[in-house]
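Kindly draft a sequence, keeping tokens residue-aligned:
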Amino acid sequence: MDLLGNDFPYATTALKGKHVLVCGASKGIGRATAQMMAKAGANVTVSARNADALLSLCEELAVLGEGDHASLALDLEDQKAIRAALPILLQQRGNVHILINNAAGPPGGPLLANHLDDFEAPFKRHLHAAHTLTQLLVPGMESEGYGRIIQIISTSVKEPIPNIGLSNTLRGAMASWSKTLSRELAPCITINNVLPGFTDTSRLGSLAASIQERTGKSLEEVQAGWLGQVPIERLIDPLETASAISFLALPASGGIRGVSLAVDGGRLRSI
């Protein structure tokens, strides 16, 4: 399936004129989301810490879509940097219509193996950053009469995943934050979460390596254990997840608000 080619699921003008800010865009699902948004005609601002990777991505986006694309090198753990950068972005690029909250997950391991200090950085780059970005961008969404806020979280929101205790805790907080805002935001703004399952990204690779080190299993055994939980019997392509994210950014998704949508190949057993 060529989701950026002949199998692209949306019109290439579906998001024309919309300004999208994609956080954590340098790789994985964030990168795939930026690609899908650009293909749908949006003006995409990609953000991550690696400035060189972002510049390379912008060159790729220019080939995919006719929008105006730019990069914003930013450390989501740095609140002062966020508050300094966003007003400049808005002045130079205009209001953001679509915000994709996304950041690297914390290391794996049992929850009680973490000290209190271990919670600080992940909560800063996820919950704190998402809250600050939303505070700064919602006024512009209200003035535009259009807003979409989408969190890339995890299926652990529905069912905690073994051996990623800190991540489970963090994702649950993000989901509760998002659901609360779904009752508070202006009618023209929707907020939803996408819950990736086992997705073919470097993040999954690092988790597999962590399990291998802790258990002595081979990487093949670790992956086989994961795939045994997934009815479609394969990892999810990041572009498949990005397709769901892109739908939630469209005008047609205006009736969907406060939802957590799993893209997990049927792994979740809960309703």
Notes: The helical segments are 28-39, 51-64, 79-93, 116-144, 165-181, 202-215, 219-227, 238-249. The first helix runs from residue 28 to 39. The domain at 19-197+236-262 is CATH 3.40.50.720 (Rossmann fold).
